[in-house]
Write a structure and sequence with these properties.
By secondary structure, the protein is α+β, with helices and mostly antiparallel strands. The chain contains 4 helices and 7 strands; from the N terminus they run βββαβαβααββ.
């Protein structure tokens, strides 16, 4: 779990909190706010893992926003909490890489208007990332495994993703 900031076209700064499952590099949850507070941060864990889907452990940074309220919520869910070492920003590289990918692939291409705009962009970006983008660490598959389409299945066509920022390619019979 980590967060990053997104500037808007109206010179406001939004905070985006991202939670990532390490098993298949899957983005589990993301939420956006203009005013981050501890009471806003704590429910994010419950929203990310609504039923009996809670992970065994959660690695987070030492941000002030994630103090007692979040620790208490994580403890009640039965999750073992791990924190990065003080002044060591590179201790959860998979989340940092994902945040960089989000910035480069989605947010750097558009002028963000408001929090709902960022949320809509990120929802589309995660759907594209899970279903279509190849990941080297997953043998060029995605977080959601997909079947290989041989050239005998027909001609490849492009389909727009993330509002046309990206495209996926599928083979369809002619």
């Amino acid at each position: 779990m980590d967060c990053f900031v997104v500037p808007t076209g109206t010179c406001r700064v939004l905070l985006v909190r991202v939670m990532l499952a390490h098993d298949r590099r899957r983005s589990v949850h993301c939420n956006v706010t203009e005013h981050p507070t501890a009471p806003w941060t704590a429910p994010q864990v419950v929203e990310a893992f609504p039923w009996d889907e809670a992970p065994r452990s959660l690695l987070r940074d030492r941000a002030r926003i994630s103090r007692a309220t979040l620790r208490q919520r994580v403890k009640h869910l039965g999750i073992t909490e791990g924190r990065t070492a003080p002044q060591s920003p590179g201790q959860h590289p998979s989340v940092d890489r994902r945040m960089g990918s989000i910035r480069r692939a989605c947010l750097a291409q558009v002028i963000v208007r408001h929090a709902q705009h960022v949320q809509r962009l990120l929802t589309g970006c995660f759907a594209y990332d899970h279903a279509w983008r190849p990941h080297r660490s997953l043998a060029m598959d995605g977080p959601k495994p997909r079947p290989i389409q041989p050239s005998s299945h027909g001609q490849g066509i492009a389909g727009p993703e993330v509002g046309g920022l990206h495209h996926h390619y599928e083979r369809v019979a002619a």
